[in-house]
Amino acid sequence: MADNNGSQTITFNYQQEGTSLGFNGLLNNVVANGVISGGTLVKYSSNVVKIKPLEMIISDSAKNATIHLKTTDDAEVVVEQGKPYIVASFTWMNVTQNYVKFEAKASSDFGTDDIILGKCEYTGGTLEDKLDYTCRMWSPIYRNNDFTMNAYNSMYSSLTVTELPSTNDLGFVVNRGKAVINGREVVVNSPISVTLVNSPSSDPYYFNGAVTNKRIDIIVMYESGTVGYIMGIDEASPTMPQAPSNALLLAKVTLEDRVSTSRIYGHEITNFNNNNFMSFSPSVGKKVGADIVNPHTLYI
Questions:
Q1: Can you give the residue range of the structural domain that contains 184?
Q2: Domain check: are 55 and 172 in the same one?
Q3: Which of 106, 123, 142, 207, by CA, is between 20 and 30 Å from 115?
Q4: How far apart are alpha carbons 275 and 175 in whole angstroms?
Q5: Same domain, 222 and 281
Q6: What whole-number distance in Å separates Cα of residue 269 and Cα of residue 267?
Q7: 3-class SS at 159?
Q8: Count of domains for the chain
Q9: Which of 20-29, 174-183, 231-240 has the highest mean pLDDT?
Q10: Residues 149, 155: Cα–Cα separation, whole Å
Q11: What is the CATH number of the domain that holds 92?
Q12: Considering just the CA atoms, what is the radius of gyration of the chain in Å?
């Protein structure tokens, strides 16, 4: 029998009583919290948003309890402009009816273990149909199932793009994180706020706010650690512009028909490193002479 070298704590020692709190402690600080799958947000009425079935990991760190949650029906949340964030929170109690709470909150009311599912957007006090997912907290369990491949050998990125907090500013924020871009690690220690301008057109952050049909722009991170904004072409069926070979594609911005705009909304931003990713499916196998044997489809 080994000695207790290092003052070890073993979950469920021999003859230890098995409790629900103890079992739920098995995942605590082992599996990262966040949404694993599902959880699409749908506007149901002027003040109600439905959360489609989801799967997630959530904790009560004060009680050292972490649970795996899966819903099978829509959950409903009453929202208001002053509390635009839809969050999930969990408080462990030794009772039979102990469930995760879904509610609307202001950012100042976030709890330590809250999981943000999305953000409501309002125009003149009216809830918009489209909701913002850029603030969603995804579990790395889900993110690790995705594979971001861009700019030759750029293979990894934890960088995300969100809207600017001020409703009067045109631009976006690249949040803290890191990426490998062409074999070089780029670390963002503090959020980078980028302000776009409508003139002159030669400015690297030039933004044409008039969209007659539809346009897809992209946000990239260069090897140097600087952020770039590249506009696409305004047309009925636009294609996304290609990222430069010395940059990593972080997100795309999809703009619909508008006379002008002074803001990029969160729902217009699609990140490529979490639940969204680029993919292709070539065939791979062993080559014998001119023949490929045992071909398989490689999903990336």
A1: 146-300
A2: no
A3: 123
A4: 17
A5: yes
A6: 5
A7: coil
A8: 2
A9: 231-240
A10: 5
A11: 2.60.520
A12: 23
Those residues whose C-beta lies under 8 Å from the C-beta of residue 6, and which sit 6 or more positions away, are none
At 47-97, the pLDDT tens digits run 999 999 999 889 898 888 888 889 999 999 999 999 999 999 999 887 777
Q: Give CA 39 to chain center in angstroms.
A: 12
Q: How far apart are CA 134 and CA 191, in angstroms?
A: 14
Q: Are 154 and 126 found together in one domain? A: no
Per-residue pLDDT, averaged over 31-43, amounts to 89
The helix or strand, by DSSP H or E, that contains position 142, with its residue range, turns out to be helix 140-143
**Structural domain ending residue among the three candidates 129, 144, 159:** 144
- Tokens, residue 123: 């125009």
The model's pTM is 0.69
Residues 210 and 259 in one domain: yes
Of residues 106, 101, 108, the one with CA closest to residue 75: 101
Q: Answer yes or no: do 126 and 185 share one domain.
A: no
What is the β-pairing status of strands 184-188 and 192-195? Answer: unpaired
Q: Which of 27-41, 63-77, 224-238 reaches the highest mean pLDDT? A: 224-238
d(CA 207, CA 70): 42
Closest CA to 176 of 194, 163, 155, 158: 158
Distance CA 281, CA 300 (A): 7
pLDDT value of residue 183: 81
* Tokens 């990222």 belong to residue: 243
Higher pLDDT, 261 or 263: 263
Of 249, 251, 255, the C-alpha closest to 233 is 255
CB 79 within 8 Å of CB 37: no
Can you tell me the mean pLDDT for 269-289?
Answer: 55
